[in-house]
Fold this protein.
Amino acid sequence: MPLRYAMQVLLIAAMLAIIPVFAAAADAPKETPKTTKPSVKPNPKDKNAAPASAALVTESKPFKFITDVGTSIGEQKDFTKRILRPITETANFFLKVYNLKPTCFEDYAEHYSGNKFEKTIRIRVWRKYEEFLTDFQKRYKTKSIPGAFFGTISEKDDYGADTGVWIREIGASDESMSDEQVLRFMYHEMGHLFMRTFILYGVEVPSWIEEGTAELFEYRRGNGTHPEEEREQREGWLVEMLAENSLIPWAEFIKVKNLDNLDFTWKDQTRSQIQYVQAWSVLEFMISNDGRQGAFIKMLHKFKSMAETQEQALLSQGLRDEAFREKFNPYLYSVQEKVFKDCYGNDLLSVEKLWKDWIFKNYETALKKAPIMRYHRGDWQLLRARMSKDPAAKKTALERAEALFMDCTSASPDLAEGYVGLGRVALEQDDLAKAGDLFAKASALGSDSFDVLLYGGMAKVRSGKAADAVAPLTKAVEKRPTMFIVNFLLGQALAASGGDVDKAVTYLKRARDLEASEAPECAMLEGAAQFQAGHLHEAYISFLRAQNLRPEMPDISLYMALAQAENNEREDAVKTLAQPPVSGAAQLLSKMIAKQMSGGDLPLPKLVFTSSGWPTIDFKGAQAAARDQDTGKDKDAPKDAPKDKAEDPAKAKDQFAP
């Protein structure tokens, strides 16, 4: 399960917990919530050019679109049009597919009128991710870090008190995102919204249907986000999953619940990836012709009517609150096989083999027009190798990937991606010379291929050619502006090569926002880039951020102290180095700073980059410069200065231990 959707299952669970029984209205709010309309003085020459000081609200049934994206009202309006129009078109498309009335969202609100449901669906896009996250965590009382969310919640006033009004909302941030990425988020959450609206009752829809539907929305052809390449990639992955027998058996697959998905997300990334790709494929299979589409809608109607009957039966038994939810929420899991047979005319579990045959048939058909499908199969094995914690399993996956990429180059010798795949295998095996040759060959065949640009640039960064990596990675970012790895690598290449520090920080910050788990490394590289540009205070703040995010990060206190010392904050630097645990390198740096404080002219070591693009401290250079000062030699050409900029961080730490 992608991390950006991890919170979704909790919000669905929370929603199911509150809507089965009509709740009494909350007490009247202490103060009416403030309006969210822009409160700016109009510019008589150009109203659209007036600065935006608040969120712009646009109502277009069934949506209320709220955004502060843009530095002027005009920019906010333009953004609203770019996002709201395709969202509305997608909603209208699926209203027809589901045979739902245009008033279905209002009807839902009327059904739960005891909770004073707002009739429109709020869609809000924040300009700043931190503001989005703060608002989300405060209102939903959670520490989770989503990329986007769909939820149902009681609205609160400015003092945090319930207003008594319930809202359905979809939220995301635009920061570091393209319009296409924002729309992807919106579409996935809309899939959940539509399923909740259709079923009406607060029962949990089997996860393979609920999440499969959300994936259908996100990856639908023609939805304005160009999902075709990802669809091909997933089809290639599925063939490999089928070949290695890693697809989840349907007897287990149909029993997976929403909270199980959350568990997979944090504990088993491979299983999570399989779960979501499989749910997407199964739903595609279930609606792959008109007859199956009709059976699918019939099945949802059955779910809805049976949920209503079950709700009434449980309420008549006097069950309420937790006792009610315990019986009601999982109800559809117990009847799904019977309902499926009534609607599709076949046993649910017996259809598994037909689905697998369909996967392979689709692949064989697609392969005739798109030989890149072979590359996507190898791509799955590389993904599996990277996620594997077992060295033997990783070795097996890499061997399988190499065989598939060799097959790709044999069948399609003019296809650049085959050589890209082999180069990626070489990268995983740390054979940088071989990887460089393979990427060069791939570049000669297709220099505009995204994978050629990305992985070719990665090979250059890792082999000490960071400056040469900037151009291809810049092109790669232009193609995929919201992909974490390409922003990270471009920021790293700029930092390690002494390039434009502002650009380096921009790309690293974007990468940090895109992938929270990698934020410490991004912040560390930001600090290193700022340090080399002489922005010492900013460097210290970035290093401090990295330490706060990951206290155990090696050598980060050394970088912080060095930035402080170079900024004439030597006493603070010594205090930083005294924080336990104190390494040998920390003791050495502390002594050097202390000598400077006592009036000595001992040069401090430099923060440099290793040949693989990571920051480290060059103690050898500082020691050599100190010896030169003592002997009167030219300090710019020490006899025993290292040929490389620095050793790897791990080696440097061992070398200068006491």
Notes: The chain has 29 helices and seven strands. Confidence is low (pLDDT under 50) at residues 1-46, 633-658. The CA atoms of residues 67 and 215 lie 25 Å apart. The beta strands are 56-60, 63-67, 117-126, 148-156, 162-173, 606-609, 615-618.
